[in-house]
# Entry
Amino acid sequence: HDDHPNWTTAADLKLIGGLDISFVTDNRVDACAALVVLSFPDLKVVYEDFELVALTEPYMSGFLAFREAPFLIALLEKLKQTRPDLMPQVLMEMVCCMSGLQDWHRIWLF
# Structure
């Protein structure tokens, strides 16, 4: 429990967040990075932000973090600076495979 100072049980969980980057239709460079924070357990949106970005790093299967992480981290840093009271305790990132199927691929606990 020392690793997670803001919560120790599921009953203490108050904020969950989700991150994603989606490409503009028919474009492999221009994209939108988004962050949404929800209250838990009622799942009301308490914060949302997005940034239009250019993904200039080449796509390499299994290495999406090199391409996407800087933009997602920037959104989290902005939240931390402007509304630290809304930093999520659990953070999920959506990953869409080449076939178009979506999968909650990464979950981080804070």
